[in-house]
Amino acid sequence: MEQNWRELKERKEEFLHIVRVLENYASAVGLKTSKFRKALSEVREEELCRIYFKQIGKYEYEVKAHLKLEDWLEDNWIHIDGIQEERDRFEEIGKVDHPVFGLTNLSDLYKIAI
Fold it and tell me: In tens digits, what is the pLDDT along the chain, a chain of 114 residues?
């Protein structure tokens, strides 16, 4: 797998959307997430300074994010791209009209990161 970090310079709002969806889900089912990811889910795109990805498995990525609020904040975590995994399963059975193909996932963003 890719061992180098890639920085996301475009489509940061789509990354934030992914974080917000995951944070909303975690909150709805009573899971605790880090204070950083809670803060990240509430920022505007312009407050998000840097995002880095490193692929560590077929669907697994290490994510590093930096933001500037009152102070610099940063955190890293492992993200498992279930959307890409579902796309691959649907492609295998030839069902490429499933709504999962219309969702942006971390694999999509990783491909455009430099």
Answer: 446 899 999 999 999 999 999 999 998 999 888 888 888 999 888 787 899 999 999 999 999 999 887 788 899 999 999 999 999 999 999 999 999 999 999 999 999 999
Helix axes 35-42, 12-28, angle to 10 degrees: 120
Please report, for the chain, how many H helices and E strands are present, in that order: 4, 4
Q: Is the distance from CB of 99 to CB of 83 less than 8 angstroms?
A: no
**Start-end of H helices in the chain:** 12-28, 35-42, 82-92, 106-112
